[in-house]
Design a protein that fits this description.
DUF3435; C2H2 finger domain protein
Length: about 160
Amino acid sequence: MGVITGIRKVTRPYSLRYGAGSVLESSGSVSDYLRNLVMNHADTRTFLKFYLSRRISKNLPAIIRGLDPEEDFMRAACRMSRTIDPDRPQWLTTEQSTSVNSLPEIAGLIHQRDEISQSLERPLAKHKGTTVYENYRKLNRELTGAKKRAQDALLLQI
């Protein structure tokens, strides 16, 4: 059923029933009594307990302030998570993560940092307050940021 409808997740009869109940509730055209009759519920508590979505899909701050609730915008915003591919890679492998070190910008930063590091005596903390140590720390921060940006870009490409 899910393949036919284009829904990637497994579609069960309960999912269709739940969706139908949500549509009946949000339409505003169906009374509680008619909804209970259609859903074959004895009273409204069944719907409230098992079918009413726990997600708030209304623009409550706008409603409270007396502004336009922008229902189309809120409906689109609430649907955004449905388009996310659950099978997309969310993390890089160790090999992919370290592959960014070979990029020219990052390799240059690593080389500069290592040159400064080799010129300092150990432990490095003993050089706190010196300009050389501050340059070393600045290069480390730049390197960390450059790696993160490159890894994020690589993850988007995969």
